[in-house]
Design goal:
Elements: H1 2-18, E1 21-24, H2 30-42, H3 52-57, H4 59-71, E2 83-88, E3 94-100, H5 108-111, E4 115-119, H6 128-142, E5 147-153, H7 157-165, E6 169-175, E7 182-189
Antiparallel strand pairs: 1-2, 2-3, 3-4, 5-7, 6-7
């Protein structure tokens, strides 16, 4: 019986993942996006990846900022453009967010890599990060990138598994100078 339960669980997960889609953030996604942010904050994790205060105050302006960021408009010279996507389920619920930078410069090369992602707390362990990363790898390949780099703090074993499932190979591991944390750099060949 235990094997059947595991089989059903795997089938349920596969079915749920098949009904997901990646989308750039639009004004129509305000409620779904802010609901995801609220879940992070309720779990005590905060949400430091985007300007949440602007999103709460004026979601259309928030979307404009994200669009400008993806086009490189108004960014300081050391900041590279990035496109932010959300993974949506069939009901339009935001399951997670992923940020993609097609090119790297320092400090992004060491600290952020080409791709960074987060999954809402109650949706972790269900394959959503693996799915988001796979979808963005397709976008990276379509742009002609041959490989992408993702740095991971060594204590983040879930991200290590996500990257490995997508073909990631560790290049090196070392202590990050700023925070003293051990960070490993993974490359995924496209």
């Amino acid at each position: 019986m235990r094997g059947d339960d595991a089989q059903d669980s795997a089938e349920d997960i596969a079915d749920a993942l098949a009904g997901t889609a990646l989308s750039e953030i639009t004004p129509e996604l305000a409620a779904a996006y802010l609901d995801m942010v609220d879940e992070f904050e309720a779990a005590g994790e905060g949400y430091g990846w985007n300007d949440v205060e602007l999103a709460r105050r004026d979601f259309a302006a928030f979307v404009d900022d994200l669009r400008n960021e993806s086009l490189g408009i108004g960014l300081p010279p050391e900041i590279v453009p990035q496109t932010t996507y959300v993974l949506l389920d069939r009901e339009g619920r935001a399951l997670g967010e992923i940020r993609f930078r097609p090119r790297l410069t320092l400090p992004f090369e060491q600290h952020n890599g080409h791709i960074g992602y987060n999954v809402r707390p109650r949706q972790r362990g269900k394959g959503h990060a693996t799915r988001m990363l796979a979808l963005v790898l397709g976008k990276a390949s379509a742009l002609g990138l041959e490989r992408v780099m993702l740095p991971v703090r060594d204590e983040n074993l879930a991200s290590v598994r996500v990257i490995a499932k997508n073909g990631g190979v560790i290049e090196r591991s070392g202590v990050e100078l700023d925070g003293g944390e051990v960070v490993s750099l993974y490359w995924i060949t496209l």
